[in-house]
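Q: Structure tokens for this one, please.
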Amino acid sequence: MTDEPIPLKLNIGDFDAMTHTLNLSASGLYCKVDRALPLMSRVKLVLMVPEASKEDKALKNLEVDGVVVREHPVIIDGQIKHYDVAIFFENLSPKNREMIVTYITSKRDRQG
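A: Here is the predicted structure, written as tokens:
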């Protein structure tokens, strides 16, 4: 698991958002968005994962399907500022899972 942010695009029906991960694992991610997303909604994600083996930090776009499994508003001074959302990856290909695990492992090794 890594909490280094990576950019991502999220699409659910008529809602598109550019955001970044707050946390990433091989089974899902945690991010913030500008509006509430219904639990169990299916989402399309494009994760821009840096290729761990590349020194120039080339980004690899991973297209992933997911399901919203947790959502809650972040309230500051009595107003909703954004929503924290947990998304479980659905049908993640072995190749994409391997790329995410390699990225997470490389981050953990450098922080070690």
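A few notes: The first helix runs from residue 94 to 111. The helical segments are 94-111.
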